[in-house]
Amino acid sequence: MRGVLYIVATPIGNLEDITLRALRVLKEVDLIAAEDTRHTKGLLVHYDISTPLTSCHEHNEKAKAHALVVRLERGANIALVSDAGTPTLSDPGCRFVREAIKAGINVVPVPGPSALTAALSASGLEVDQFIFEGFLPAKKKERRERLRKLQDEKRVIIFYEAPHRLRESLQDLFEILGDREVVLGRELTKVYEEFIRGRLSQVRAEADRRELRGEMALIVGGAEKQEYPAEDRLVAEIQRLKTKGMRVKEIAEVLGEKYSYSKREIYRLALDSRRK
After folding, report:
1. What is the pTM of this model?
2. Domain check: are 88 and 166 in the same one?
3. Are the C-beta atoms of residues 269 and 238 closer than 8 Å to each other?
4. Same-domain pairing of 145 and 99
5. What is the number of other CB atoms lying within 10 angstroms of the CB of residue 68?
6. Residues 76, 77, 80, 81: is their CA dihedral positive or negative?
7. pLDDT in tens, 179-224
8. Domain containing 94: what range?
């Protein structure tokens, strides 16, 4: 008889945030595949669980997945856990799960804590619909390209962010998405849990004022419906930016992003107005 792969959600901070079912599964399985065995060991010691551990993280998952699936095929039950929250959501484990499914293994979720849902539930924003973008790219060019693709997204957008990249990400969000409503949740369920609410400009100013630490969830309001400006108004804006010394190409970039309007068309209007 083949074993079962359990996807077990574990606390994102407060160790009390674990279900009775999760504790039972962690005690009963033959093996726990953990993102960081040292981190998970602390949870197991706290609840007096002696199940053996093995590592399964982003650097060894490709090689480890096959061996773990073999054990499942031979009848072992395995629990997959990440450092915190629900495995495979911006965490390792997806390759392992896919290999198990391909081999016909029964994959069973054991739901529980998630920074994503915790932050959304306390945000105060309308979240009937939302999209989850995970971590933004670390490099500025790739990050800004990703954000440009989200300019017209009407649904609430959720990101995860690391503290050392927070200021840069908030600046790019402000410049590309505009001064939208935002909620920053940090250190969720931990001693220093905090929610910072306001416009992007306000949250950015708060991040500049003091050092914000801990893993963060950033919830950004969706794009408001914005009508394209009439051509005469657009020409007036072009002229205003020209008086500031901006080049035609720069004007097309700025107004194209501001109005989600064809940069080629703005470029044409700018050239036409220069000839007049």
Report:
1. 0.78
2. no
3. yes
4. no
5. 23
6. negative
7. 999 999 999 999 999 999 999 999 999 999 999 999 899 999 998 7
8. 4-113
